[in-house]
Design a protein that fits this description.
By secondary structure, this protein is mostly helical. It has helices at about 15-20, 30-40, 60-65, 75-90, 95-110, 125-130, 150-160, and strands at about 5-10, 70.
């Protein structure tokens, strides 16, 4: 088995670290990281502090499996999502579109054989179809913490939820 993960360009800090063969995430200016994360469709792929370099984390898993980190742009992911919907009849989330676009690139470049056995993690199957004709309510969070929240303040807020 070979693990291949994908990031949505231009937010690609794990890709950059992997290409540099670095267990440690490379410096990424906070303002640029926020701007890059805002641009991407797959917001769930925008963790600025992922479990990449920790012992047993993604870096180790990639090394152990001879894996790789791929990148897909928003247009590539959108095309992959449209293709999935056309061929499978179901819509998928943006992150799944990024993964699908990366798989397509791997097959087209010959990195993965066209007859290879592949497990592709697809999320969001059918949400647009489910929502069609239904009224949706989008709730706002009751509490939003700043980026550098004090751990004590977070703990107190969580404890208050169960008081």
């Amino acid at each position: 088995m070979k693990l291949i993960v994908s990031q949505n360009a231009p937010f690609v800090p794990m890709y950059d670290a992997w290409r540099a063969d670095s267990r440690v995430m490379l410096p990424y200016d906070d303002d640029k990281a926020r701007r890059d994360a805002e641009i991407i469709d797959a917001k769930v792929l925008s963790n600025r502090r992922p479990p990449y370099g920790i012992a047993g984390g993604l870096y180790d898993a990639l090394k152990a499996t001879g894996g790789d980190v791929m990148v897909a742009t928003n247009p590539q992911a959108r095309r992959a999502r449209a293709l999935f919907r056309e061929l499978e009849g179901v819509d998928i989330y943006s992150a799944a579109g990024v993964a699908t676009a990366s798989l397509i690139k791997c097959v087209e470049s010959g990195r993965i054989a066209k007859d290879a056995v592949v497990m592709l993690n697809i999320t969001g199957g059918g949400e647009e179809l489910f929502q069609a004709g239904r009224r949706m309510w989008y709730l706002k969070p009751s509490r939003v913490f700043p980026l550098a929240a004090e751990p004590v303040a977070v703990a107190e807020a969580v404890e208050a939820l169960f008081a």
